[in-house]
Amino acid sequence: MIPWLTSGAFLLAAVVVGSVLARRPRARTPAGKALLTWNLLGGVAQVVTIHPVYEAITSLTGHHNTAIVLSHGLGLVAAFFAEIMMLCWTRGTDGARAAARYRAAIIATAIAVLAVLFALTPEVADTPSSWRLDNIERPTVALYSVVYALAYSWVLLDLCRLSVRYSRMVVTAQTRIGLQLFTTGTAFGLAYQLMAAVDGLVGLTGHRLPPHTPLSLALVCTGVVFLCLGAVVPLVTTAVIEFVRRCRQARLCRRMEPLYRDLATEYPQVLKGPVWYGTTGWLVNWYGNGRRLMQRTIEIHDGLSELRPWMDELAYRVGAAEAMREGFDAATVALVAQSTQVADALRAKRGGAAGHRIHVEMVEVAKDREAVWLAQLARTYQTRLVEHALDELTTRRDPAAQQAVRNPS
Questions:
Q1: What residues contact 370, with CB distance under 8 A and at least 6 apart?
Q2: What is the pTM of this model?
Q3: How far is Cα 291 from Cα 218, in angstroms, rounded to an integer?
Q4: What architecture is domain 2-246?
Q5: Which of 61, 333, 359, 383 suits 39 as a labelling partner, its CA being 20 to 30 A distant?
Q6: What is the domain partition of the chain in residue ranges?
């Protein structure tokens, strides 16, 4: 059961990482490719210990328990790629290439020693989950256990050190959480390997510790889960944040539609984009919402600039008075006043009124709030409150004495 869980965790992580690399070319860095390779090899290392696969490898090679040394070798290679991933993040590609050379030599030497010790061990029946423990009193198996445990412990300590170092360099919370999960996973793996080293050392004396296979499997399973979560959580969290951001951009674009359509009708030469996307269009074009939102914000600003000759201070004051009568805060008062002014200017433009030449300033908004402000403006200028303000403006306005002046700042 445990090999199914651990292999499933690694392969699921590989699917998540692979999908991110496939959809985001910028993520196809050496570190990203090393992350994918680590998950794939880690999954394969666990798959070969599943009983049907284990027996199939025995039949293929003609030697019992060959899958054990194959699994351990793949596990060490997978851990080596995890080291490359961390080295790329902490030292850059060039620094990682130089630092990986001696690590590769150590891993290759350890795998060669394991293969030799396995070959020197007398053949026994297939025991997928407990080959080392069942034969720990054999000197070659005990030494095999010590070599494998020390090699893997060295890799895990290196990964833990690099993870802690990299956590001091990152700024995003999701990456820090992922590194903490990764470090926790290496701690569980290290506990398992130290236990295996003790088993091997005791086995060299011709004795064995009390059976503890369930504890060992629990440590392996827990460590693998935390390691995979450490790899997946930052990617999934970033994808969720990106999804929410794009959905928010789509929502802002849709909220701009009333004002956008009206300005597009009056100034088609300024607003080059399509007037309306519709539900299906937004789903199809969802990926480009950031670009579309920026384009729409610029086009609405251009349309409002063309509309300024018809904007009147009286409309601004009447809208502000109506909003204050309702007890709104200062920001909402300014929004209602601006909405009333824009609605009045559109009505005057459509009615054929002549515009003035006095430059009318609009409400100043911070650049990072422009899209939100325009979306609020588009939704507000068609509300009943603005309609009531326009009715009040009609009763108060004296066309003969009408004169547009600058809005108060």
A1: 297, 301
A2: 0.65
A3: 49
A4: Up-down Bundle (1.20)
A5: 61
A6: 2-246, 279-401
